[in-house]
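Fold it.
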Amino acid sequence: AVAGAPQFASVQRLALAGAGSPDDFAAAILSPAWERLRYLDVDFGWQGVWSDSTDRGHTLPNLEEFRLAGVRLTDDAARGLAASPLLKRVKHFALSGDYQDGCDLLPLANTCDPDRIETFALGIPHLPERVANALRAKFGDKLRLLPS
């Protein structure tokens, strides 16, 4: 209902806390009503297991900053997020949450355009050192490893 309301058509910054399920997130965000959205901050509060719901992210053509917090990633979810067109366009990306393996974060990083991205931030507990080293090699001083 909110996404379809005309008074929200010019919104450029949106922050959602306790966003519920990824399906709720997809229904709320991936609407043409948010075409002017430049900044999106979603905090699942450790409640949501991220799914690949951003694969329809082409409806957010002006998004420059994308922050996901409080998510529990699975391998499939990390690959789905890596396939999202959102990551190809953003200048600032931050992801914090729980991810047991960390290996599938490399495809996520490879999705980002190193010439376009200005900040790639991760707050993942127990991030494997080889993954951190690969990210440092790719992003240099653009990489931020956040406290988890």
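The two ends are 34 Å apart (CA to CA).
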